[in-house]
Amino acid sequence: MKGLATILMIALVSATAAISVSCGGTNKTARDAWLGGVRTDDLTSTERNDLDRDLHTFPSPCADVDVPVAQCLEEKRACKACEPAAEFVAEAIRSGRSAAQVQSVYMARFDPSIIKKIDITGAPTMGPANAPVTIVEFADFQCPTCAMSVDILDRVVKGYAPYVRLVYKNYPLQYHTQADLAARAAVAAMRQGKFWEMHHLMFRNRTALQAEDIDRYAASLGLDMKRFKADLDSPEVRKIVQRDRDQGDALQLRGTPSVFINGREFNFEQFDFGGDDLLNWIELDIELATGHKVARPAAEPAPSATAPMSPTEGQAN
């Protein structure tokens, strides 16, 4: 009997070891085999329990797959975003975020119910109209953080071409005394096909936006000055700027810049706009839309007047 017990014990240990197998360098247990390609080998037992709990709680990223992420993966539901969503949660746990923080960033990134429909009719755009990723930025020409975002967004549109389109919306803050004039100048320049040229000029000179400064920028772009000045003060141009502002108010913007990627707000307090968070976000949206991964653009030298991207620069009034 003692020999039989020993044999049974060895068999039990062998069976237990067999349950935990190495697959592509990632150790999987029977409990989380449904995780597919999600990496969990470097998580502690507590972190793995947290991951299991979260994925059985957090909703699927797809509005038409109304189940938790875990069920989406276990049943191989038709939601391509479930596996990257699970990996996102694992990475959030791995980074040491609290349970509340993990839930908050997950919902901000993947909750399908918070996607906004933003009317971009008539707005200035950069990039192809059929791009799978549309970035809408609400900004103020006197806002310093908005000025820093110009180079970041330029590099994104260029580096991920033809997959990204940028749309600009005016959201002049009331305490920036030249912001409304600058917004109208941008729209007036757009009417002569020079929006982005004026946009870049004014952001590079955001501390010099008096009427005479703006006239000088317009003249340097070769605009028809008589037409430009007429448009600048026209009811039509004022209406366009006010329409953007009203749209921002309806979205309950907290300040500028406010950025939406495919209708989902990129929260500057939760995600790094000037780093990997933004690029990871865009790359995943491209992959989900096209079915293939895209190479990350080579890093370019940072602009001379850089600083870490901070939360929105001013509160909306």
Can you say what the CATH homologous superfamily of the largest domain is?
Glutaredoxin
The gross shape turns out to be elongated
Q: Kindly, what is the distance between the CA atoms of the first and last residues, rounded to a whole number of angstroms? A: 82 Å
* CATH topology description of the largest domain: Glutaredoxin
Q: Helical proportion?
A: 40-55%
Q: Structural class, please?
A: alpha+beta
Low-confidence stretches: 1-28, 304-311
| CATH top-level class of the largest domain | Alpha Beta
Helical region count?
12
Rg over CA atoms, rounded to whole Å, is 25 Å
Main beta sheet: strand number and arrangement? 5 strands, mixed
DSSP strand tally? 7
Helix-strand pattern = HEEHHHHEEHEHHHHHEEH
Number of domains: 2
Question: Could you explain the architecture of this structure?
Answer:
There is one protein chain. This protein is an alpha+beta fold and 317 residues long. It folds into two domains: 29-114; 125-290, 3-Layer(aba) Sandwich (Glutaredoxin). The chain has twelve helices and seven strands. The strands form two sheets. Strands 3-5-4-6-7 form a five-stranded mixed β-sheet. α2 runs antiparallel to α4 (82-94), α4 packs antiparallel against α5 and α7 runs antiparallel to α8. The longest helix has 18 residues, at 2-19. The protein is elongated and about 70 Å long.
